[in-house]
Specification:
The protein is of the alpha+beta class. Helices cover 36% and strands 20% of the residues. It contains ten helices and ten strands. It has helices spanning 26-42, 50-61, 79-88, 90-93, 95-100, 106-113, 160-175, 178-181, 205-219, 232-240; strands spanning 4-5, 70-73, 122-125, 131-141, 187-196, 224-229, 244-250, 255-256, 259-260, 270-277. Helix 1 packs across helix 2. The radius of gyration is 18 Å and the shape is globular. The model is unreliable at 1-63 (pLDDT under 50).
Length: 281
């Protein structure tokens, strides 16, 4: 369904969120440094030269992690380990989760893992067998004439805080139809979540997971990959992977009964949908 590419300095790059897949990229490094500088300032400390903060952070973290990584398909047997990673990073730090103070949420757990049986999702694993990054994907098919309208996500969500997020997703679905933009496709691969262990930032894991997703789509004759980003940083990561924006909804413009529902910390200012065609060379 939607993405959430993991985002926040404690995640991907953002990966939204989203949090940086590769701090070797100078543009992503600048964004990460800015984010760290803001965090340090909020904590009562000043970062006089944030690039040095990032460099020192890398010196402290990278030598301590297992750099022998492999990328492989996620199976249903990985469910518990995948959820363990997400609970430690994505569940806490995705901008909307953070804003509503989501906490424990069984509905989010189900949402994250319901498509694992497709074997279209991938994990990064270190030499100890620990999952240190995931990309969770699912195939969405074009509605056919005569199909019943799908039930709204918010209507079947009991968790009051997560229901607010699902209501936003319903609003996006009601106001944006990807099949109108791409009338020649009958399905697309939805990148729902991209999350990386904070200790493994700067190693290109997000890019490797995304590349493997693109390979899967190509091998299975899926012409389009779709990502919904609630995080500024996750959107920036996907743009670096040549994804293009096709929809944007500023949080300030999403209101219920005249009241703005979400106001996450800047630079997270909009929901964005980005896509990449994989059948065009």
């Amino acid at each position: 369904m939607k993405v959430e590419v993991q985002n926040h300095v404690d995640h991907l790059s953002s990966i939204s969120s989203i949090t940086v897949p590769s701090t070797h990229d100078p543009h992503l490094l600048d964004e990460t440094c800015l984010m760290l500088s803001n965090l340090l300032t909020e904590g009562g400390r000043m970062a006089s030269k944030v690039s040095l903060v990032c460099e020192e952070m890398q010196k402290e973290t990278l030598p301590q992690v297992d750099r022998e990584l492999s990328i492989s398909v996620i199976t249903e047997a990985d469910t518990d380990d995948v959820l363990d990673l997400l609970k430690r990073f994505f569940f806490k730090d995705e901008p909307l989760n953070t804003f509503v103070k989501l906490g424990e949420c069984m509905e989010l757990e189900i949402y994250c893992t319901k498509n694992l049986g497709e074997r279209s999702s991938y994990k990064a694993v270190n030499s100890k067998g620990e999952i240190v990054g995931v990309i969770l994907n699912g195939t969405i098919k074009k509605p056919q004439p005569g199909d019943k309208p799908p039930m709204k996500l918010a209507d079947r969500c009991a968790h009051p805080k997560f229901r607010k997020i699902m209501a936003l997703m319903d609003h996006v679905d009601e106001n944006f139809d990807i099949f109108e933009i791409y009338p020649d496709i009958d399905r697309f691969l939805d990148c729902k979540i991209l999350s990386v262990d904070t200790r493994y930032r700067g190693m290109g894991i997000a890019g490797m997971l995304t590349d493997r997703t693109i390979e899967y789509a190509t091998q299975n004759d899926i012409k389009l990959i779709h990502v919904l980003c609630t995080s500024h940083f996750s959107a920036r990561v996907m743009e670096k992977m040549d994804f293009a924006e096709v929809y944007r909804l500023p949080y300030a413009d999403y209101r219920v009964n005249g009241e703005q529902v979400f106001e996450p910390e800047k630079p997270h200012v909009a929901v964005r949908i980005l896509t990449k065609r994989v059948d065009v060379q």
